[in-house]
Design goal:
Blueprint (H helix, E strand, L loop, with lengths): L1 E6 L3 H11 L8 E3 L5 E11 L2 E10 L3 E6 L5 E9 L4 E4 L4 E4 L3 E8 L5 E5 L4 E9 L1 H7 L2 H13 L7 E2 L2 H11 L8 H22 L11 H16 L7 H7 L4 H12 L3 H18 L5 H7 L5 H12 L3 H6 L2
Helix pairs in contact: 4-5, 6-8, 9-10
């Protein structure tokens, strides 16, 4: 097991101390996970004295235990996409919540003045974007009443088992951040742009009091069921599952499923599925992994013109124009 206790000041210092805990070194602000502990990398960057971030993309061969001790005031944001092998534990050392769901797609907005504990079991695939922002920076850009609401929410939810919620737009932007290559000469600019965009989306969700951003209004069991359905819709892109099969999967009526999913994600089941598969096709075309016809077929379109029409409706551009500009 790897154990790491820290006070969160900035992520470059956090990474340096984490490297010591793993008996490795930091090179160009990046740790490569030692082979006996797993695979993957952790990157950290201090933008300035008020804003810092880390990007963690690893697969664990041993349990990982992180304990954040009480530190300086500020805002700590973590976007988490974890394929859990056994279980996760979240909370305080004195009060832990054990989660055995196979997937975690959530956001924690907390205050570093409050301690926090996270344990992830061996075999898990962990993608985390971690951000720490000072109160001074937040006050520079936010009205005082908005800042006070955000501060109160962060303090009151530091030990909550109900995190914020990763929606489709978060997922798309996170994918872009995780896939930035370090040999890209403008990688730092791209990453910072994506992070600022994610923070903007999260703040807009908070201010609009969207159900997708405030799942405390949804029962915990129902929220877990919607996360399971969302995972199905995001992974099985070759054909839309029937409402009946989805409802049976989470043991609820089709009407409750439709209403609850719309409440949590802001989209109907089919709209969410369709946006997810079209984004997948766009990714395939951008990276040149397949032809337009193959991309359409990959996500369930047998008719090329229908695929092109749906693609243009979603992105405002035809697939062939996207390929030309590649």
């Amino acid at each position: 097991m790897v154990k790491y206790s820290f006070q969160l000041e900035n992520f470059e210092k956090w990474l340096t101390d984490f490297a010591v805990a793993m008996n490795t070194t930091v090179k160009d602000r990046v740790i490569t996970i030692p082979s006996h502990l797993g695979t993957g990398t952790i990157l950290a960057q201090n933008v300035n004295q008020h804003l810092s971030y880390a990007v963690m993309n690893v697969k664990l061969e041993h349990d990982l235990e992180l304990y954040r001790e009480t530190g300086a005031k500020g805002f700590s944001i973590s976007f988490n996409q974890v394929e859990v092998q056994k279980e996760m534990q979240v909370g305080h050392r004195q009060q832990l919540v054990t989660d055995k769901r196979p997937f975690r797609n959530d956001i924690f907005l907390t205050d570093p003045r409050d301690s926090a504990f996270l344990k992830i079991s061996a075999g898990s695939q962990v993608k985390r974007l971690l951000i720490v922002c000072s109160h001074e920076l937040a006050l520079q850009y936010l009205p005082k009443d908005v800042f006070d609401k955000l501060d109160s929410f962060a303090r009151n939810n530091s030990s909550s088992e109900n995190p914020l919620f990763i929606n489709l737009s978060h997922r798309t932007m996170l994918k872009e951040v995780f896939e930035i290559k370090e040999n890209d000469p403008i990688s730092q600019i791209k990453r910072l742009s994506g992070i600022i965009h994610l923070m903007e989306k999260l703040l807009h969700s908070f201010l609009r009091q969207e159900q997708s951003a405030l799942p405390r209004t949804v029962k915990k069991n129902d929220l877990e069921s919607m996360q399971h359905v969302e995972q199905i819709l995001s992974s099985k892109l070759e054909g839309f599952p029937s409402l009946e099969s989805l409802a049976q999967e989470v043991f609820m009526s089709t009407s409750k499923l439709k209403n609850l999913f719309k409440q949590v994600y802001g989209h109907t089941l089919y709209d969410y599925y369709n946006k997810s598969r079209l984004q997948r096709a766009k990714d395939l075309l951008i990276t040149g992994q397949c032809s337009i016809k193959q991309a359409g077929s990959e996500i369930g379109f047998s008719n090329l013109s229908h695929f092109a029409k749906a693609f243009r409706k979603e992105f405002g551009i035809l697939p062939r124009d996207l390929v030309k500009g590649r």
